[in-house]
Amino acid sequence: MTELTIDVRGLTKAYGGRRVVDAVDMQVATGRIVGFLGPNGSGKTTSLRMLCGLLTPDAGEGRVLGLDFRREAAAVKRQVGYMTQKFGLYEDLSIRENLDFIARLFSMPDRRAAVDAALQRLGLATRQQQLAGALSGGWKQRLALAACLLHRPRLLLLDEPTAGVDPKARREFWDQIHRLAGEGITVLVSTHYMDEAERCHELVYIAYGRVLARGTAASIVAEAGARDLEDAFVRLVGRANDNFGQAG
Ligand SMILES: Nc1ncnc2c1ncn2[C@@H]1O[C@H](COP(=O)(O)OP(=O)(O)OP(=O)(O)O)[C@@H](O)[C@H]1O
Question: Is the pTM of this model over 0.90?
Answer without folding.
Answer: yes
